[in-house]
Amino acid sequence: MKTSKLSIRLLWYITPLVILPLLFLGGFTLTNVTSSTQKQAEIIVSRFVEQQQQKMFHYIDSFHSTTKLLSASPVLSDFLADDLRDNGNYTRRLGALMDVFASYSEAYPDIISVNLVSSDGQSDAYYSSNLNTAPISYPFFSQVLQSNLRQQQFMVQKQDGTTSLYFIQRIYSADYYLKRPQQLGFIVVHVEPSILNTSILEAPYNNTLNLLLTSNGKILFSSDYDKRGQYISEYELQQIHDLANLSKLSTIELSSIDKVERMSYAIQMSGGYYYVSTIPKALLYQSGKAISLITALIVIISVITLPMLIFIVVRNLLLNPIELLGAASHRVGDGDLSVYLPAHNNDEVGILFNDFNHMVNQIRHYQDELEEYKHHLEDKVESRTKALETMNSQLEVAIAQAEQANQLKSRFLANMSHEIRTPLTAIMGFTEQLLHSNKTSGDALHLSTILRNSKHLLELINNILDLSKIEAEKLAVEKEPLDIVQLVHDIDSIIRPLSQEKRLNCNINFHLPLPRIINSDSTRLKQILINIASNAVKFTEQGLIELDITYNSDLQLIEFAIKDSGIGMSEREVERVFKPFEQADTTTTRRFGGTGLGLCISKNLAQLLGGDVYVTSTHGQGSCFCVQIACNLPADKQQTVPMLTELSQLTPTKDLQLSFAENSFDANILVAEDNPDNQVLIKLLLQTWGLEPDIANNGAEAVEMALVNDYQLIIMDMQMPVMGGLEATQMLRHAAFNGPIIALTANVMKDDVNTYLQAGCDEALAKPIDKDALESVLVSYLNIEKDSQNKWDSLLNSEKFQQINDNYRLKLPGYLTDVTQLYNNGEWEQLRALAHSLKGSAGCFGFSNIHHAAATLEDNLRGRDHNRRDYLALSLIEAIKYTLQQEQSLTKK
What we know:
Elements: H1 5-71, H2 74-79, H3 90-107, E1 111-117, E2 123-128, H4 141-146, E3 151-157, E4 163-172, E5 183-191, H5 194-201, E6 209-213, E7 219-222, H6 234-246, E8 250-253, E9 261-268, E10 274-280, H7 281-284, H8 286-333, H9 348-375, H10 377-436, H11 443-471, E11 480-483, H12 484-501, E12 505-510, E13 514-515, E14 517-520, H13 522-538, E15 544-552, E16 557-564, H14 571-576, H15 586-592, H16 598-608, E17 612-618, E18 622-630, E19 643-644, E20 669-672, H17 676-688, E21 694-696, H18 699-708, E22 713-716, H19 725-734, E23 741-745, H20 750-759, E24 763-766, H21 771-782, H22 791-797, H23 799-825, H24 828-844, H25 848-862, H26 869-892
Parallel strand pairs: 12-15, 20-21, 20-22, 22-23, 23-24
Antiparallel strand pairs: 1-2, 1-5, 3-4, 4-5, 6-7, 6-10, 8-9, 9-10, 11-14, 13-19, 15-16, 16-18, 17-18
Helix pairs in contact: 1-5, 1-8, 8-9, 10-11, 11-16, 12-13, 13-16, 17-23, 18-19, 23-24, 23-26, 24-25, 25-26
């Protein structure tokens, strides 16, 4: 293949773009290798010399301290006393002093001898580790006498080239009445400098020469043993002095040692000594030269090879595919549609090749379709006409389904209207009757009717809300331990009275063995079973209702079969029974009522619980609804599952460990509550259980009391003045209080409860107070037995509770005045706090209308939408007024 013009131009541009940066990079590297090597060496050598200096300094300073400590020895002072020889204790004191010298020599192995020298140079006491005799004189003693320094050290080199250290400490008398202390002598410590010898032999590089020089140029220590004792010239000594002042690595030549040019670093030490570290310059820059040669070689090779490699790669990756694509395009332009580019790499060029092949295939395909359309145009028109007819038929079916859905919606709305209006009519009618009637004989019956219809209306609304959550896939179910016997007992306690009202037999059959405990959602499972069982009672006029419980061990499913002998259903009705808003037929709605939501919700809930609901029915003979639920038993086969195998196990038993015992439990409990009425009520309730609590009026008091006293349990209101319960709980947990904290509040929404638990609370209980829930929580944390189940009833009927209730009634006019004044003044935040207090206290004392009105007002004031706050505030005022009117009417009667 001949070289294209584009290839030549590409090579012409690539070559200078590659060569020039490489040349610049190589020149820059070569020029900086030497300087970087020198800087690196200077850093290494300077750090090394400074480390050696510090090591020597600490070594010398330690022996100065040792000599000074020895001179202050009480034994030495006792030895130098004036009456030493007069009283005959010289031998004893000399022996004691020798023991002191020996102890210092053992403690410091480098000490060769310790000598007590008098002021005239005579040895009074001498100790040597090698048993030598005291020297007659020291070569430096004349300098010691001429100096006024208390501490001095000298380095003395021996004839064999080794150097010893001598530390001298003057000794003065302790007579403080003399204007000038009397000099008694000197302590001379002779040391073999092992650390100095070691430091001299250490080196940052190979062939490094370390020297320790005196002020006159004599080499005392050297890493080259042969150099010890030699002298350097005065000129070289001056160079070293100047080099020590510069504190940098510099080039000098020590002709007195050798003729090698060296890079040297020097520092001046105390006493006029110099520490010098030298490195042959050629050795230091040897690595730099090698790097320079390697760099130059790499640059030359790169300049030659890189342009060629880049040209080859670019040609193979880009130029050749472009030439191939151009040739193929030219053939397509000439009408040759058989062109096909070979498969290429999965990159942009490969995508371009694939797109080109796709384009050619599309052109070929469109040409074929055009030919086909020319030959089969009539067939296409006929088939298109048939397709339009089919679409019209489907459209007619869709229109019919839409009309049916519209009718279904209208029927559902009519049914909903009837179902909602029926209980509302009863509620409104009996409420008006109670308001305008002065008779009290039928009040209980009327109230019972209102309550029953209210529950029915609540159940209807709950069903609609549950269905909405299911369709939105936002209904969550739990997996908690569930006792099968207790579950069936709860269902039986609800269904059996309903069946007895219609004189139906109600049978429950346990098919053993059954697992005692499964993991499921107790609330939702009860909702399913109660809904289906109540339907069975509703649609059965005579006969029986049966509930069979069976366990499928292979699938780990528990099955509840609910059978009845009611009206039954046809096959067509069975197909529609689980659809929302539908019942078997319209006559069923007119005869029995209902919304058609129960079975649809039950089936969806069963599926969420890992099972399903099935039905078999015969018209006129009855139905059987089978509810299957996943048991969610442990997957570990080694963990045994408790099973029900005998009839004696089918009686539900209440756990006595979750109730209070007869004897009172000695436990310190703190109650943090700002409302005085709630304080008295909670205290009275706890006293009934044998507990005497302490009361805190706000969170700040609760924190202070909990940190001072030892409480086993804290009951904490969440909204209080000064400091709320949330902040108080967090502060207690940060202060290492690890006891249980029970949140007692009227705000028990899921998000609120999660907030309390995250802050450090162990449980969250709702206001109004649920006695059983509070008892269960207290017992679970205090671990005491129940004293009497009837104490709660006796508490409500006791004179003390009635007195508390009467006191609260007397405070209602004051609450009414406060609410009215805050509303008129527009003080919404204070009104919200008062509504929160009323919500909890009114509910505790049975004033449900005030409780609900205060709760609704508080929720509105806590949110951002305040459009209804005036209405809700007036509703709370009216609720308090209505309660006061009722109390006055009862008082008159």
